Amino acid sequence: MSSPRVVSERAVVFLIGAVQFINVLDFIMVTPLGPHFAAGLGIAPSHMGVIASGYTLPACVAGVAGSYFLDRFDRRKALAVAMLGLVAGTAAGGFATGLTSLLMARAVAGLFGGPATSLSMSIIADLIPVERRGRAMGAVMGAFSVASVLGIPLALMLAQWGNWRMPFLAVSVLGVLVVAGAIFYLPPIRGHLERQRGPVVSARDLFIRGDVLLSYTMTFLTNMAGFVIIVNLPVYVQHNLGYPPQTLNHIYLVGGVVSFVTLRMAGRAVDRLGSFRVGSVGVAFFIATLYVTFIQLPAGVPLVAIFAFFFMSNGVRNVAYSTLTSRVPEPAIRARFQSFQSAVQHLGASAGSLLSSALLTSLPGGLLGGIPHVVGVSVLASLTLPVMFFLVERRLQARDQALVVPMAAVPAVAVSPGGGAPRS
Predict the structure, then answer these.
(1) What DSSP string runs through 280-314?
(2) Do 170 and 306 form a contact (C-beta atoms < 8 A)?
(3) Strands 368-369 and 415-416, how do they pair?
(4) By three-state DSSP, how is residue 18 classified?
(5) CA-based Rg of the chain, rounded to a whole angstrom?
């Protein structure tokens, strides 16, 4: 019998981070590319939320469907299938000829991208101990920052040098390479199958648990509060504020660098101080930057600096809630929980995107009307998050204290915290 492949925690985090980079870039690059393909395909600027929901709604459906079968497979193989489907959907977006074909391509990407997210988070939760999971989550979620620093500026440059189709095709090619690397280096991940004993927890049993319902509510509100704003940033910067398209490159570059650093710091802070304290600070900064950016823009302050704080605060609260929710499920039901988590996450993003399209209007000159309304929705949703952080964290602490006899964990893969041999 062959011995399990030894892989370091650092390697696991890097590989899953690379997969998430492709997954995140595929999703977030559509918004800054909006002004480019909107002109080519005849799409109104106020409809960017509809384009975003073309991905998030199918991802929500896929998350619900995946919850019924993802825990039955080796996580590495399931991740490979999901990512290859995502790459195919991204490539199809590059060949879109109109709004309908673009929405269909984004739907395919969402159907596979949603499960890819939940599987990535499940792998991290399976292989990284809880005492170091906040740092690992912060590093993996740093894929958003790297996508902002490198991916979005490069995508915008490709669109400016060639056309808006080139970024979709380039991400598809890069995605194939990243998926191949992750499949080759990641070991089989079957420990959750070995731990499955007794009756399988049904979806109904999952949803009657208080910690699960609170976790999903927190996830929905976090994503709705963010995406009601995020999907409209490029149009707002170019049309309402009157900045040239090149400004977006600087915004995403600087914002990504700042958030990359702060995400790693936030992950360590969550490990030490808990999600409630760190997440509440992130929420406070997020609300403050909403007011400064969209309601009372101060004269003389560089726009790039303001948006850097926006991305930083959004990232801090995301690390806090992701780390907290990763502690909720037991290993045997982790993929099912994360699938529903992914569904709720994308449902919140869809709700925010569609709500922004309903609240905003297209004014002459491409201006967006109704900005204070979407800001108000984001602020109200954000104000509930510290309460959610507190309630979920308190329930988990109570559950951990009630565990008198620790359960023996049988690792699926020998994983060492560094690059050497695994600990005995």
Answers:
(1) HHHHHHHHHHHIIIII-PPTTS-HHHHHHHHHHHH
(2) no
(3) unpaired
(4) helix
(5) 21
What the block records as the tokens of 356 is 């922004």
| 421: Cα separation from own chain's centroid | 32
Gap between the Cα atoms of 33 and 232, Å rounded: 11
Record the tokens describing residue 60, joined without a space: 């929500």
List pLDDT tens digits, range 364-415.
777 788 889 999 999 999 999 999 999 999 888 888 777 655 544 445 455 5
Look at strands 7-8 and 415-416 and give their pairing.
Answer: parallel
Tokens coding 143: 């894929």
CA nearest to 121, candidates 66, 201, 51: 66
What is the band of 421 on the pLDDT scale with cuts at 50, 70, 90? Answer: very low
Cα distance between residue 282 and residue 322, in whole Å: 13
CA pair distance 166, 172, nearest whole angstrom: 10
Tokens encoding 125: 């939760």
- SS3 for 188? coil
Phi/psi of residue 189, nearest 5 degrees: -125, 95
Structure tokens at 120: 């990535």
According to the CATH classification, is domain 8-191+202-400 in 3.40.50.620?
A: no
Instruction: Name residues whose C-beta falls within 8 Å of residue 402's C-beta, 6 or more positions apart in sequence.
Output: none
Q: State how far the Cα of 424 lies from the Cα of 408, in Å rounded to an integer.
A: 13
